[in-house]
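Tokens in:
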């Protein structure tokens, strides 16, 4: 991708070399024809300078492309039909089983992992997501659109059926994500995207993770890992999801992978106390949770057709 195309000086860079306060136009440098031997040293200088210029611009862009995380307030959703569609999308994502009973057969909501309606940094936020698709997927060995990616989440992470690309629920979901991503241009890197990169990759201890789960996680998710309903919606509006079994995510979900689960847990769990577990503790409890019984995903046989399956995949 050429990031220069986003900047107003792209025409200057393409036709000129900026040297201090002077601009040397390449078209004038090569105006004489045929090319004279005495011009060759100048050509070498120009080529070298152009390479140095592009390298320095690339370094500047690498830093300037990173923008701080910020999510719009729900109160700023506009009035009218478009605003209604955006609000509908948000409701689907935060109350998924109730809003889409014909599709969702688990007890999971999209916002169980994409915390606070996809507005929390390093909790797989949806802010800026529309600028990252379509993109190449190694798992499918092809380009994947945003609606297709959402369908995959329904089938894997919700262990359910997926709405069609042109369906009303999908249109509403996309409308909400577009609204969340307003003001973010293609190619920019948003701070807080996805899950954090942990500084360590320790060997997990499943037995230790089980005890950690009972001590730190069971109060919300239950000793049996089947979660809790919204008994106190004012404090916990998104519920406590089941972490294994038929009502949870299946074996092909991203959260069933050790490194992703550990990163999410270390940053965001226990709920409202994220960051209190060490990286080792996060790996221990993640390893315990992902190895509990969960539903299969028969279509997994089509994953990574060109190889390269991650080592922490559960199949």
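Residues out:
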């Amino acid at each position: 991708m050429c990031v220069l195309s986003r900047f107003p000086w792209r025409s200057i860079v393409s036709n000129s070399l900026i040297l201090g306060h002077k601009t040397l136009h390449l078209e004038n440098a090569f105006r004489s024809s045929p090319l004279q031997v005495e011009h060759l040293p100048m050509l070498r200088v120009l080529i070298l300078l152009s390479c140095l210029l592009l390298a320095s611009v690339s370094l500047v862009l690498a830093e300037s492309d990173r923008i701080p995380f910020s999510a719009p307030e729900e109160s700023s959703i506009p009035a009218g039909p478009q605003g209604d569609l955006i609000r509908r999308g948000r409701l689907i994502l935060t109350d998924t089983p109730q809003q889409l009973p014909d599709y969702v057969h688990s007890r999971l909501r999209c916002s169980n992992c994409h915390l606070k309606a996809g507005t929390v940094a390093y909790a797989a936020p949806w802010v800026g997501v529309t600028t990252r698709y379509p993109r190449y997927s190694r798992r499918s060995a092809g380009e994947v659109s945003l609606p297709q990616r959402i369908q995959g989440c329904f089938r894997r992470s919700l262990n359910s059926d997926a709405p069609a690309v042109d369906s009303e629920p999908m249109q509403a979901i996309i409308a909400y994500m577009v609204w969340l991503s307003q003001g973010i241009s293609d190619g920019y890197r948003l701070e807080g995207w996805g899950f954090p990169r942990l500084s360590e990759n320790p060997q997990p201890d499943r037995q230790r993770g089980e005890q950690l789960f009972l001590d730190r996680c069971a109060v919300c998710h239950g000793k049996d890992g089947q979660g809790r309903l919204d008994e106190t919606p004012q404090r916990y509006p998104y519920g406590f999801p089941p972490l294994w079994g038929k009502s949870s995510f299946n074996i092909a979900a991203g959260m069933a992978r050790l490194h992703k689960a550990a990163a999410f847990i270390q940053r965001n769990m226990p709920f409202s106390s994220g960051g209190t577990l060490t990286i080792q503790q996060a790996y221990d409890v993640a390893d315990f949770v992902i190895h509990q019984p969960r539903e299969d995903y028969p279509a997994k046989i089509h994953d990574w057709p060109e190889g390269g399956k991650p080592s922490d995949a559960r199949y």
